[in-house]
Write a structure and sequence with these properties.
The structure holds two protein chains of two kinds. Chain A contains five helices and no strands. By secondary structure, chain A is mainly α. The longest helix of chain A is centred in the first third of the chain and has 22 residues. The model of chain A has no long low-confidence stretch (mean pLDDT 92). Chain B is of the alpha+beta class. Chain B has a five-stranded antiparallel beta sheet with strand order 1-2-3-5-4, sandwiched between helices. In chain B, strands 6-9 form a two-stranded antiparallel sheet. A two-stranded antiparallel ribbon of chain B has the order 7-8. In chain B, α6 packs parallel to α10 and α8 packs across α10. The mean pLDDT of chain B is 95. The chains are: A mainly alpha, B alpha+beta. The interface between A and B is medium-sized, with 37 and 31 residues.
Chain lengths: 123, 336
Amino acid sequence: MAHDWPHLREIVTTAREFIESVTPGLSGLDRYHGMCASYLLEIAERELAHWQAPDDVDDGRLRRLAAAGPEVPREELTRRVCERIRAGGFDACEDELRAELLAHVIAKVRVSKPGHLEPEHRA
Amino acid sequence: MSAPSEPATIVPLLKAALRRRMGSAIEVEDVEIATLGGSNRTLLFDCVDGEARRRLVLRQETLQFARSPFLPPHTQYVLLEVAYRGGVPVPEPIFELAPEDELGRGYVVACVRGETLPKRLLSDAEFAPARARLVGQAGHILATLHRIDTAEVAILEAVEDSVDALAAQRAHYDFYGEPHPVLDYALRWLERQRPPLRAKVFLHGDFRIGNMLVDPKDGIRALLDWECAHLGAPEEDLAWFCMRAWRFGNIARPAGGCGSRAELFAAYAAAGGAVVDPAAVRWWEIYGLVRWALYNIMQVYGHVSGQRRSPAFAACGRNTAMIEYDLLLTLAGRYD
């Protein structure tokens, strides 16, 4: 599914950059472990560059909302949904749109901070 | 010019700046960096003149970035002067930095003692007397601010949010370029449900717990952070104060996490504020959720675009989904 910025690879890079910025100020074993953590995250960054997240339920939902066929790449789906909403394509069925969008957002929050969700929306 | 970043560099320049304005005997002592935010630094110090000693605050802009929604320091300083003259509790403005100070853009104000941390204000027993007065004081302060003649803050007329606040948010959203179906839905809802236009007033723009210095007994002592000020409907400031995010867990108390909307509106009216339209307040609360989501997107945009990288700004990006969740449940009438 399409998560918000920062994307997964950017999250890993952010963590690596922070570790690299504090490691020189550490000493002994902490310094060595800081260097190891940077090394591990570099590996993760390289692996993610070649990794494609699988399609899932949310992609199917966005594809329906975008009225997009299988030829439309998943990276385009969110933008197409936005364009349809902005053009008034859902003005006559606002309740249905809101229910679909809630399911989309619940899927995102389950990853970012599941404790924020009401009990019935947790996985 | 960018501001120097190390206290060892700042203090001699600050001393020179003070001596240019207050005399050659001035010394700077007891320096403390209070905050180092994303685009501002707040430095506290004693300005010593012989036997006289006064605690002051240097506020410096540390970063300028593309399509910032924040007012430049010069405008903030002008607003502080107007608010101070108008009886709004703000730190007394002392002077604005000039190019020869070599400290970048910023200003010096008097130091006001008080607590800003929301969790302490809303939970600690010590602040119970302040909490009992806080909503009434908030209504009174907003009425005082909104009464100031807008001719005195004509500097705000050209600010995007003053011209059309909703169009300004749409422009920010389009600039960042990250598509969010929930925000498009909410922006469309707002465009179709706009409340009637009313005379614009001088708004603080970020009036909430966390931007106030609070004394445990006396309550609100000073209103801080004027970088979002603009002209607009009075309900915008009232609604922002009631936003779910600014209740800091005290969900059942919409007004700043310690009172009801009715209490806030009554205090506002008792202090001479205009009659409040509750439907307009709700519209501005929905608008506030969109604006808060866009602030988080602004932070992550700064990070992923490389303008100002930090793990905190990266995290803001993934906080957006939580605000979208609150927004949808508010639009559905489930959240109040």
